[in-house]
Amino acid sequence: SSTNELKDEL
Amino acid sequence: MNIFRFAGDMMHLTSILVLLLKIYATKSCSGISLKTQELYALVFLARYLDLFTDFISVYNTIMKLVFIVSSTAIVWCMKRDRVVRRSYDKQLDTFRHYFLLAASFALALLVNEKFTFQEIFWAFSIYLEAVAILPQLVLLQRSGNVDNLTGQYVFFLGAYRAFYILNWIYRYFTETHFSRWIACISGLVQTALYADFFYYYYISWKNNTKLKLPA
């Protein structure tokens, strides 16, 4: 998964 | 989403609401560091560059907008509002926060998940958030007595990242490829900076005395 998906936190 | 992260977000939101209450109810920003508020506004602007490109959830988008609008409104109010800015402790708020900016950006260029514009600004926002509270803590030590709302503001601000650490521990054990070392280590540093504040806040709460940080 791209790191962006991991940026689901505020 | 897990309970730790939701509780953390609610504490973060509460800290901002308490600060807005203090400024609008007392029409005063005494004891509040404008430099810390400027750093937080930068943290959100640098972190939420993907606000219009990556849609995560309605909650995520709304909270990002709330954080960006509230942090910039607080900075604007402390700088422009004729009544509020009179109570700004300009002579006490002297922390050289440009160093924090430069150091955070330099570190973000060196340590990031990917050398791309968005990832570098994300890492910059994470490092900057960890140290953004320093001007505020220094101001509290210099200004002696801390009013209740300011104390509660700093307390909730410190508590929110502590809950995020619990969230990262939870996600580490429940999700396969979860790894957010930059955010985790930075979050630990951020929470550690509040350690002495939490101690004196607890003492003042236990003895029911006014919060006072030793100079």
In short:
The complex is a heterodimer of chains A (10) and B (215). With 10 residues, chain A is an all-alpha fold.
Mean pLDDT of chain A: 66
Counting helices, strands and paired strands, the structural category of chain A is mainly alpha
What is the assembly state of the chains in this entry? heterodimer
Major sheet size, sense and barrel closure of chain B: none
Contiguous uncertain segments of 5+ residues of chain B: none
In percent, how helical is the residue content of chain B? over 70%
How many β-strands of chain A, per DSSP? 0
Shape of chain B: globular
The pLDDT mean of chain B sits at 96
Taking the alpha carbons of the first and last residues of chain B, their distance comes to 40 Å
Helix vs. strand class of chain B: mainly alpha
Assess the beta-strand content of chain B as a share of residues.
under 5%
Q: What's the number of domains of chain B?
A: 1
| Gyration radius of chain A, rounded | 6 Å
The succession of helices and strands of chain B, N to C, reads: HHHHHHHHHH
Point out poorly predicted stretches of chain A. Answer: none
DSSP summary: helix tally of chain A: 1
* Helicity range of chain A: 40-55%
Query: CA-to-CA gap between the ends of chain A?
Result: 19 Å
Give an overview in words.
The complex is a heterodimer of chains A (10) and B (215). Chain A is built from one helix and no strands. Chain A is mainly alpha-helical and 10 residues long. Chain A starts with a helix and ends with a helix. Chain B has 215 residues and is mainly α. Chain B has one domain. Helices cover 72% and strands 0% of the residues of chain B. Chain B is built from ten helices and no strands. In chain B, helix 1 runs antiparallel to helix 8 and helix 6 packs parallel to helix 9. The mean pLDDT of chain B is 96. At the A-B interface, helix 1 of A face helix 1, helix 3 and helix 6 of B. Chain B: Belongs to the ERD2 family.
